[in-house]
Amino acid sequence: MKGFDFDFLTITVTDVVDILFVAFLIYYTYNLIKNTMAVNLLLGMVIILVLWFVVDALNMRLLSAIINKFMSVGVIAMIIIFQPEIRRFLLMIGKNTFLQKNKAWWGYLFGSKDIERDNLVRIKPIIDACKSMKKSRTGALIVFVKFYDDQLFANSCEVIDSKISKRLLESIFQKYSPLHDGAVVIAENKIKSASCILPLTDNDKLPPQFGLRHRAGIGISETTDAVAVIVSEETGEIAYAKQGRVRMNVSFGELEKLLNKDF
Q1: Half-sphere exposure in the Cβ direction for 146 (13 Å, CA)
Q2: Is 155 exposed, middle or buried (0-12, 13-18, 19+ CB in 10 A)?
Q3: 178: which residues sit within 8 A by CB, 6+ positions away?
Q4: Average pLDDT over residues 32-58
Q5: Cα(76)–Cα(79) distance, integer angstroms
Q6: pLDDT tens, 102-152?
Q7: 47-88 pLDDT per residue, tens
Q8: What is the reported pTM?
Q9: What pLDDT score does 101 carry?
Q10: Hey, which residues does 194 pair with through a beta bridge?
Q11: Fewest CB within 10 A of the end CB: N or C in the chain?
């Protein structure tokens, strides 16, 4: 393909597309790992890579042989270390495809606006429960997943499989309820389980006032495509965790929009 000749450099359209794709990849990778422990892991791997080049240039054979052995399994090590980030990256790609981003238009064309209205009806008991728990400062952690993973949740949860109800959510998180510790998991328009023990985030840059509920909500959103609603027991403030990030002091109007979009 013909391109522009700058004597020392020939740039083709393919090169431009290649650079754009690499920039796109770097941007998405940065969005995935910023404010997470993966930044420190990546920095450590970069330091080892630089050390490898230095050792090789200085012809330090013993140290070079050791680092060579480490680098030979580098790709496998990266897959293992960055497994949560790779999973989130693939989920992000799937969510941002043309069909996914334009599903509202498809719904409008094929009459699924009724489904959207039904979704708002399903969200209302959750919003009402959050209003009540905010007022009474009842701590709560509600997790929304698109696909319920039995292996992930069943071993650490009490299975409920019930219709979503304001009173049921309030009774689960009531202080003296045996199920109030842990999270409620909602999927397939049902309260699937309660008292779920979730993985905590490894992010060491979170505010010190974040308790186990916030860390668990952020943690599950880091490793899966779940979103989490957290009601603070100390302040009654509502937080919303998605893709490892948390939005604080969410209003009920914002919460309704977020849940309608993600749930």
Answers
A1: 8
A2: exposed
A3: 195
A4: 74
A5: 5
A6: 554 455 555 555 555 666 778 899 999 999 999 999 999 999 988 776 666
A7: 888 888 888 888 888 888 887 777 777 667 677 766 666 666
A8: 0.61
A9: 47
A10: 158
A11: N
| Alpha-carbon 14 to chain mean position | 34
Give which of 203, 198, 202, 194 is closest to 227, Cα–Cα: 198
- CATH for the stretch 115-262: 3.40.1700.10
Rounded CA-CA distance 40/146 in Å is 30
Residues 6+ apart with CB under 8 A from 19: none
Contacts of 49 (CB under 8 A, 6+ apart): 71
Question: How far is Cα of residue 162 from the mean position of the Cα atoms in its chain?
Answer: 25
CA dist., res. 186 & res. 117, Å (int): 19
CA 114 → CA 1, 121, 186, distances in Å? 50, 11, 21
- 215 to each of 137, 144, 189, 249, how far by Cα in Å? 18, 16, 25, 16
Backbone angles phi, psi at 244, to 5 degrees: 80, 0
CA distance 148 to 186: 8
Query: Domain map of the chain by residue range?
Result: 13-94, 115-262
Identify whether the C-beta of residue 258 lies closer than 8 Å to the C-beta of residue 140: no
Q: Give CA–CA dist 129/77, Å, rounded.
A: 44
- Pairing type for strands 190-196 and 183-187 reads antiparallel
